[in-house]
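Example 3.2
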Amino acid sequence: MTVKRCLIAAGIAALAAISVTPAANAEPLKIRAAWIATPPSLLPIMFPKPGIAKHQGVTYDLEAIHFNSSPTQITALAAGEIELGTLNFASFPIAVLNANMTDLRIICDETQDGHDDYVTNQYMVLQDSPFKKVEDLKGKMLAVIGIGAGADIGMRAGLAKHGLLYPRDYNIIEVRLPSMKAELMERKVDLAAFFPPFLYDPDIPKVARSLFTMKDGLGGSELSFWIMRSAFIQQHRAVVVDLLEDAVRVYRWYADPKNHQEAIATLAAVFKLPPERFDWAFTKKDNYRDLNGEPDVAMIQRNIDTVKELGFIKSSIDVAHYTDLSLVKEGAARIK
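Structure, written as tokens:
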């Protein structure tokens, strides 16, 4: 081989090394993920022990960031401050219609209410109250965690089935979940909403009883699902599939009864409380998580149609258009 040919070959080899080496040695992609409450969201406890997630720290680096509400998540998504959001059937259409974020895509399930015989959120009255049926709440004061929140929609839908409409037939006050029990016991409200873990306060069965449930109102609902913007998915598709593969692994690990004690110990460490306080978690006393990571798209559509019927949005949306489950299906298919 001539000197000239050797130099050309060496140059080609060098260019190939330059083009390949950065990808091989690339830093894991940072994915900032929003969460509001755990254990409904597993994002802050996605890595309970080494070896479950195969790609964390390799192709991606997940950073769980706490948010107080869905609207603040929507703002952060719009500003590019997070890559992964966790919205529900009430907040997602607002992001699409009001914030004009038509590039959002639903990519993974997080939690569902009222699936089969899993827990459903409870709307409760005092044991000694005179309210025996939903119609008895006419003219009364009802507590919700937030106007337009999923639990508020579920409550209004349940009341509407019995002919009670807001604001004609009842009053609403916003109450933080930790304060629901006190507000009800002090008779400041006539009905309060209780969800895990507050539903399992040992005082609740002594003082309160369920009048109806979120499942009664909505027939099941998607409480939370993962969303990303389509441009981020297109740019980093392979990494997003890695993340969703790990998410399915984690969902299955938490749901496996043989891991239950380790799972609730993980929660106990976060809250600095005894593990027995969380014995309900990751069982049928908890919200349902699809073990393939697939949200119920038809149910989301029904839920959003209800949001429109109750007047929170001007029009419904075609949920299928904003859903891409190909990534989580590809990730789950890798797991043997």
